[in-house]
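Hey team,

Sharing the Protein-glutamate methylesterase/protein-glutamine glutaminase run so nobody has to redo it. Sequence (386 residues) first:
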Amino acid sequence: MIVDDSVFIRGILSNWLSESADLRVVATHANGRRAVDDVLKSQPDVIILDLEMPEMDGLTALPLILEKKPNTVVLVASTLTRRGAEVSMKAMSLGAADYVPKPDAGRGISAADEFRRDLTAKVRSLGQRVRRRGGLPRVTAAAAAAAHAAPAAAPASVRPVAERSAVERAAPATSALLQKKVNDKRRPYSMAPVSILAVGSSTGGPQALTRLFTDIGPNIGSVPVVIVQHMPATFTAILAEHVGRAAGRPAAEGVDGEVLKPGHIYIAPGGKHMLLEKVGADKVIRLNDGPPVNFCKPAVDPMFDTVAELYGRNVLSVVLTGMGSDGAKGAGRIADAGGSVIAQDEETSVVWGMPGATVQLGNASEVLSIGEIGRKVSRLLTGGRA
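Structure output:
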């Protein structure tokens, strides 16, 4: 389903998506009210939802859609502005699975082509996840408690559906076969103390990062934290603010030449790779304007490579939800250097691309749900054993 007040946008998105044999547009609507009224009749797997519309905007419609049909995935579309980024982050906190930034008209055809590829890939990936699981049914109280219980948050079963992430609306148990494969290929945890926490994420990452840093914020005072989230400029600045609030720690986009400080969170700015370099006794941030890596800029692999080089067995890294395989090879370099790698599990990932690739390459020390990751990271940061 496509929901946008522009007849031109509805038409062009419909044409683009309909050109893919595995995708079908079941409905288009000009405002959120019509989408809410039609969602049960049209039964979409994925909804592309504009956030600024007359009569009923996307933020108002989103929780109503998820209340009516929780077994769907909502992809919000927003402008590449600060307000667009802020509203997108709000939408994801209300249950949207991901976002797509609308192209800047000033960038011409290349921006439109990039948007088209991004949109189609996300719709396909999110839709396949829904179909593979037969939808995203409401999780039972018992399953919610087992999969998501944490001191920092009430179980999903007792929170309004509008406050739950797409992940929390469905979290089936990890299959015994998958867990056996993971255990067979597991890399050992490092026995050395943690000196840096490095995190990579993409689709579904903002929600996962917020959950993770809510859990671990009190325990990161002794190490710097570096994060690569696949996002454009402006969005990464807003993400840093959200992560900082969740953690109760200083957080900002990394600045070239900035010295890493314990207890500070550094997020790769959109459109730049963020690397680390040793200068004298200090570790500093280096921003790189080179070509995309794994079709991403910023990319996780370049950061993981330099983290492994500088910190070796003192690295603790986490690969969270995301499309593609970015971070999987870099995680291998961290593991080869003696560091530790935690991958988010399939059940709590919006898309199990990046963590799945890390696991399949045999580069993970452990595979955990997003709630379990917070507890494990906190234990390792405070001197506990794996």
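Confidence is low (pLDDT under 50) at residues 135-176.

Ping me if you want the raw files.
A.
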